[in-house]
């Protein structure tokens, strides 16, 4: 009887040990995958505090590599979309522009309380902003994550009076709503032409 109980206890301990090792392995795997995911999405590990011998690490959001692709996220699209934007269209939009690294607002048509009117394809805005609006419907909301190569590159850019500056090689985030597609005659009073 003692042998059976000791064998049973041994089997139970072995199963518990196997389950604990399996759980530990899964935690390590998940931690490693989480770290890799954070690295891919623009974070870096930084030391924040030290408590005795223990080091405390945190994740800090950093700009994406300059050659990253433009990221376009559709946040809302109307059910009916008769016309989509194309190069040469005159657009009226509301937008907020923030820095990817810290979320600081650098420009906003909403704070100016006036929609931004421009001709798509004339490079009145940065390349990523304009490419991100192609094929958009009136009433659609998009989130654009623009890497520095498609934004302002190594150039230092001044923001509006209400906001701050954009540092060189900054990744930008725009939240854009397309208010309407205008005719040239409707857009003319609002356009800023750079000759």
TrEMBL record:
InterPro entries: FKBP2/11, PPIase_dom_sf, PPIase_FKBP_dom. Coiled coil: none annotated. The keyword Isomerase applies. It catalyses: [protein]-peptidylproline (omega=180) = [protein]-peptidylproline (omega=0). It comes from the Eukaryota. Keywords: Isomerase, Rotamase, Signal. Its EC number is 5.2.1.8. SUPFAM superfamilies: FKBP-like. Residues 1-22 form the signal peptide. Pfam families: FKBP_C. Residues 88-182 form the PPIase FKBP-type domain. GO terms for molecular function: peptidyl-prolyl cis-trans isomerase activity. It is an enzyme of class 5 (isomerase). The keyword Heme does not apply. This is peptidylprolyl isomerase.
């Amino acid at each position: 009887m003692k042998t059976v109980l000791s064998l049973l206890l041994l089997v139970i301990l072995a199963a518990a040990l196997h389950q604990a090792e399996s759980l530990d392995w899964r935690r390590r795997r998940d931690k490693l995958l989480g770290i890799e995911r954070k690295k891919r999405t623009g974070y870096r590990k930084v030391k924040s505090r030290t408590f005795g011998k223990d080091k405390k690490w945190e994740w800090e959001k950093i700009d994406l590599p300059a050659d990253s692709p433009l990221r376009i996220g559709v946040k809302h699209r109307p059910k009916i979309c008769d016309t989509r934007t194309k190069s040469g269209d005159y657009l009226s939009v509301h937008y907020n522009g923030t820095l990817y690294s810290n979320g600081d607002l650098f420009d906003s048509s909403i704070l100016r309380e006036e929609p931004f009117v421009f001709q798509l394809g004339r490079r009145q805005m940065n390349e990523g902003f304009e490419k991100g609006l192609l094929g958009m419907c009136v009433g659609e909301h998009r989130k654009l994550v623009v890497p520095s190569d498609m934004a302002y590159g190594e150039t230092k850019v001044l923001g509006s009076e209400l906001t701050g500056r954009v540092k060189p090689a900054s990744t930008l985030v725009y939240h854009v709503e397309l208010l309407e597609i205008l005719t040239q005659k409707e857009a003319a009073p609002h356009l800023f032409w750079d000759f």
